[in-house]
Every structure is written in structure tokens, then in C-alpha cells.
């Protein structure tokens, strides 16, 4: 099954069904539109403090839905597959509050947060294959 590495806090927000857009500088290949992919959490978190205050405020608001630890990412998973999501479209200037302007907005839906994370998984750039018999 294809996987995509995403930094925290974005990976957890997507897996919990809160963030419905993944922003990338490159267009999602058409063959992945309509496909369920695995959400892999990168080793390093995103540099949250470099984002504008508006984005940090939005993240704080939504992250409180899934955790009381706020933006202390040390308690969040890393190097793990935590869920899956379906990529339903790839557009620019999507109206979602999560969509960044000037890049590709991958529209996501039907997020599944796994009860049990698959820990110790090293990520890769772009889409990559994760083979595990239990995932369909």
C-alpha cells in the first residue's frame, strides 16, 4: 500500500479527520486520486513557530480536540504509520481553512486513525510502498 510521510502536527490532524487538505509544492499524480494511502509520521516535526500567528492559532484550536498537550509535539508519534486517508482531488486555492495559497491542495477524506500504530517505520520522500499483509 502506498504511504506518504507527513510532519507533525499535520499528520495527526489529518489522521484524526480534522485537517482535510495536504499542501504540497507538486501536483498529486492522477493515479493516486481516489486511492487510500497510509499516513506516515516523519521523524522531525514541522517548525511550527515559523508559521504565521493565524496558522498557529488555527492549529491550537483544532489540536485541542485531540490532545490536552497543545503544541508540545514531543508526546505525539514519530517514525510511525498512524492511519490512512483517501485523496479525492488535487486543486489550487481550495476554500478549506487548511489550504495554503500558491501550492497544490490535496483534498482528503475518510480519515482512519489506527488503534495501534505501526512504530519504527522510516519514511521516504514522495509516495512510497509499505508492505504489510494486514493492510488492504
Q: Characterize the largest beta sheet: strand count, sense, and whether it forms a barrel.
A: 6 strands, mixed
* Average of pLDDT: 85
Q: So what's the CATH class?
A: Mainly Beta
**CATH superfamily caption:** Hypothetical protein
Question: Oligomerization state of this entry?
Answer: single chain
Which strands sit side by side, in order, in the main sheet? 2-5-4-3-1-6
Q: What is the number of helical segments per DSSP (H or I, 4+ residues)?
A: 2
Quickly describe the structure:
The protein has one domain (2-129): Hypothetical protein (Archaeosine Trna-guanine Transglycosylase, Chain: A, domain 4, Roll). It contains 2 helices and 6 strands, in the order βαββαβββ.
What does this protein structure show overall?
The chain is mainly beta and 136 residues long. The chain contains 2 helices and 6 strands. The protein has a single domain, classed as Archaeosine Trna-guanine Transglycosylase, Chain: A, domain 4 (Roll), CATH 2.30.130.30. It has helices at residues 10-15, 53-63; strands at 2-6, 21-24, 36-41, 80-91, 104-119, 127-129. A 6-stranded mixed β-sheet has the order 2-5-4-3-1-6. The longest helix has 11 residues, at 53-63. It starts with a strand and ends in a 7-residue tail after the last strand.
